[in-house]
## 1
Amino acid sequence: MITSETLGFDVSRETLERLNHYLALLNKWNPRINLVARATLAEAVDRHFADSAQLVAVLPRPLGHWVDIGSGGGFPGLVVATLLAERAPDVSVSLIESDTRKATFLRSVIRETGLSAKVHAQRIEACAPQEATVLSARALAPLPKLMEFAARHLAPGGTALFMKGESWGKELEDARSQWQFSCTPHTSKTNPNAVVLEIGDLVHV
Ligand SMILES: C[S@@+](CC[C@H](N)C(=O)[O-])C[C@H]1O[C@@H](n2cnc3c(N)ncnc32)[C@H](O)[C@@H]1O
């Protein structure tokens, strides 16, 4: 069960109800379409919900358009959308996921929980540029590839939040051979070897 304690900060009863409804749907759909690795389902509250929730604490108050790419079962984008509905209702959230079964799952969660996020069932490379003020991704691609996606979908002055495992230092080095950018690594609250990379000022070299 998801509580304010498991998320690490206080949220309203309505937000907890939405998140627990989402968790129930994840448990129901996962055996059919593998939204998350089966081995991680029992630990979904920490591995997926709390891990995703930490992103809303990284930026003081994001305004505008938050876009999550390669959302899969909605991590981190749909958790962010649920939290921002309470904390920053002026932010619109879009999710890009090319697998149509996963996109159908995302739309079902949005409908059943009464959220207003938009789902693009398209490839990130083919989706119209989103002018995102914040772009997020977890477990999608190596950093140089993520930079290409960011160049397409970030608005000028926008920020990317990329969740990376322990190879992040090497990936950062690889990305710096092709891109100029500012980067602040935030140690993950759920895994001391992982980081959230806060990236801005992206320019192709
Ligand atoms: C490993 S999963 C990670 C899902 C989720 N972000 C998470 O951390 O649980 C990667 C997801 O990205 C989607 N994906 C991969 N390449 C994509 C692309 N070029 N355009 C859109 N979606 C893509 C896949 O369908 C898959 O659902």
Note: The chain has a mean pLDDT of 96.
## 2
Amino acid sequence: MRGNPLNLTPEVEANPLLSDSWSRSLRYGLEPTADDFPRLHSRELADRLASHRRLQQLTQPVIDSLSRKVTDLQSVVVLSDASGLVLHTFGDMQAMDKAQRVALAPGNLWSESGRGTNAIGTALAIDDSCEIEGRQHFLARNQDLYCAAVPLQSPDGRVAGVLDISGPASYPHHQTLAWVKGAAKQIEYLWVKQSLHPQQWLMSLHPRPEKLDSVDELLLVFEDNLLTAGNRLAMRRLGLSAAELGQMTFGQLFPDLPQQAVDVPQPLWVAGQRFYYRLRPPARVSVAVTPPPGLRLPFSTPREGEKLLRLLNAGIALCIEGETGCGKEHISRMLHQHSRWRSGKFVAINCAAIPESLIESELFGYQPGAFTGASKNGYPGKIREADGGVLFLDEIGDMPVTLQTRLLRILQEKEVTPLGASQSLPVNFAVICATHRNLAQRVAEGTFREDLFYRLREFALTLPPLRQWPARAAFIRQLWHDLGGEKRRIALSSALVDRLAACPWPGNVRQLQSLLKVLLALAEEGETLETDALPEEYRAAPAPAPVAGGRQQHDARLIAQTLASFDGNISKAAQALGVARSTLYRRGARTGGR
Ligand SMILES: Nc1ncnc2c1ncn2[C@@H]1O[C@H](COP(=O)(O)OP(=O)(O)OP(=O)(O)O)[C@@H](O)[C@H]1O
């Protein structure tokens, strides 16, 4: 048919929302007569439900009253996740015919790519509310249904799921879309208010002062002076996008307004429109920490550093990959100190070093007497310690799969339930993870959850090994200065620095730092160190080639040389290497055993 190559019905063709959606459905390769439909097995569904507990808890009271309203229309309320997967169906389904009951039950996937034009899938595709009635549905098998859906937005600006009302198309649905929109507005309002952290500012705005303190309020949340969250009403009305959260400052949004508590509604002009606003200061004032001057990354440009900071400020999960010792933790600590999370702690967890049986209590904490041997005072756990700060997950690739599920849930719901507790506690933190493993390969092998992989790797950064850093000589001199070389009036000759800059450094900065500590411990005040001060393996030109199992072999050699320099005195060698004596005993025993 000319002008209508997709053979759309006149009703669909006349409505751009529908014709676009039908075109997409056809492009997905769907057939209107298709009778099979995507559905999740109960085990996978249980897993997905567990990771959306917060969404369900938040929506439950609003949905309960909504489902009572739609009973007379023989309709049900459906809650889906952001992929269109039905998580819960509320209301009486008995009045529906069997096919509809089956199709709307939890576990069904109502994405547009799975079922063509339908309210849940199309609302997700256009990120807006919509109603799809009878023959407007793409699949013939759904054409007895009426559905109205609204995407739900979490305070961090992400689409978290969809709220939908579905029922027989034969009933009148004059108010249904308005009801579902009102419920979604209420959920998004409660979500912002309930996840407010004591260190955050809350701004509420509305063109009419009497509407303040109602679900119609526009809500904005600031941490320090950074905009970090808001409800959809505010973001739409003020033209803000999720990408601006963590970037936009109070001053950029309201240039003429001081960031001061305002209790009695005051007028305010924004984008040519008059609003009234209140500004509630944080309940717990964070210790004002002045950010240290500019972030310097020795291996890249200042712009790269600024980019990473912006991402961290926006709450984006960073995944840092790179060889051992190249500074993954060091850079994470620097980012934390410069970020909006700096008033909270930097909490590092080595996922490979904690015994599997202890990781759970270590991460999630426990109630007094939660298990035999538990401290009688309980333990808050690392995740709660990181509240307001940065949680650094080192060697994330080694986290046991069972714990990956719990970690994912915490990252999605931003709350933690200590062992033995019945109530969960809200937490707010940024996540940086590090690994020297190939995480994608672990996902392919089935030892790392794919959903956690994407959640933790919202932005991935690969640190180059030290041998590839530009300006290595300058870095070596800086490290020497930081270790106190200049203070002790001990200099490094240019020839020595050049030799070190040419080394391959399989153990990266850790190896370089250990060597410089040894040189410093052995040198006399006022001396200038030449290449002959270097241990033999560093003296020879060309520089030593990287060896298999690099770090361990290098460490063993360095330990042996240092011990020899101090005539076998373990205390002095340990001091020179900057490690505990017990480490040297342990390493000595290991290398000696080979
Ligand atoms: N840019 C840097 N400036 C100064 N010191 C650094 C720098 N990068 C790393 N270091 C130091 O090198 C050592 C190793 O760094 P770090 O622990 O961050 O490496 P890593 O990549 O996390 O190692 P691993 O993979 O073994 O955990 C630390 O003592 C750290 O302080």
Note: Residues 200-280 form one domain.
